[in-house]
Amino acid sequence: MSLLVKKALLNGLECDILIEGKVISRMASNLNISADEVIDAEGMAVLPPFVNAHTHAAMSLLRGYADDMELMDWLQNKIWPLEAKLTEEDVYWGTKLACLEMIKSGTTTFVDMYWHFSGSAKAIDEMGMKALVSGVLIDMFDPKQACKQRELNEALYDSMSQYSDRIHFCLGPHAIYTVSEESLNWVRNFADKHKLPITIHLSETETEIQQCMDMHGCRPVEYLEKIRFLGPDVIAAHCIHLSDEEIAILKQHEVLIVHNPISNMKLCSGVMPYQRLKEAGVSVALGTDGCSSNNNLNMVEEMKVMALLHKNVSGNPKIAPANEVYHSATKPLIERFFPKSNGIAEGNNADMIIVNLHHHQLIPNHNLISNLVYSGTGDIVDTVICDGNILMKHRKIEGEEEIKRGALEAVKRLV
Ligand SMILES: [Zn+2]
Q: Between 3.40.50.300, 3.40.710.10, 3.20.20.140, 3.40.50.1000, what CATH number should domain 50-339 receive?
């Protein structure tokens, strides 16, 4: 299967891109080659896709179900009771709905943490996206639960051959307040043994810091360092309440931080210290978190909120400029975990979005990155390609109506 993208603007210059299989095989200003399929991208820009570095995809089913509440009240009284009723089929449809939404706004790759792993993995695979997929590992400090969770994760890891190579297994210990030290140690050893990434929620609320001080006599990042959990394979979501010492530890172990500004603002968790992290040289990726705390999965919107939030809290309009925010939304996770997708270049995997420069939000086009961050909404994205497959062409996604129907039926059963 070959695909030719004709006359797209890449870094301001017109370019034809030939994709054979999943790889970009040739790029030149005018390729006189035939291909199985041709996309006319005249008047459009081709860019790397967005990467959602932290979400719980199937929570799309809970969109708007419980808003305007405090985190623990929200989790304990609304989210967890409903999640207890979820089946693998519900998760399958919820994840498909989430994928639909992410593709429509230009995301091809994400990090997922949710229950019923097989439902998520199957849905993401069918939608043609790439992901680090984790089950949720929670033992609530109960050794029996811990044992069950380890066996489950081992079984899930062994089941990976049924999915395409776009689906990567990831370990997902939920947080230090829901997972015992024994299980965190098991996660670290399992990750080392099989070279797997780990994703965890970290330092999201003041309560978490206080509990950690009470239980372990130190702050969360210090605790994770003490038990030798941290490393460049750790993707830590939120990281809001950090001392300077903790920031230095995160840098020393090259932990990848995920910023979720909308979720943090909605739940009043606090503000991630972006500038301090940046000055310390810590890598910051961007994510939406789940749909019940956001309430969408639109990385274009997330970029704008990130930029505005840090300007507003610092009183400095130069903080979090468009190019830095755009970098967080596209690069750090890809460089580290999907190096073959790092950039639109010959020999790389063909992952790209084609953005419609005729969209009224992108006119005039003094600065495309500025327009993407501050002006665009998701529908500026015209076409999405991942591993050489067209996931959306001229805003049409195959099976869209069936996905909406399936998700609505799942919600009807649940609520
Ligand atoms: Zn989360």
A: 3.20.20.140
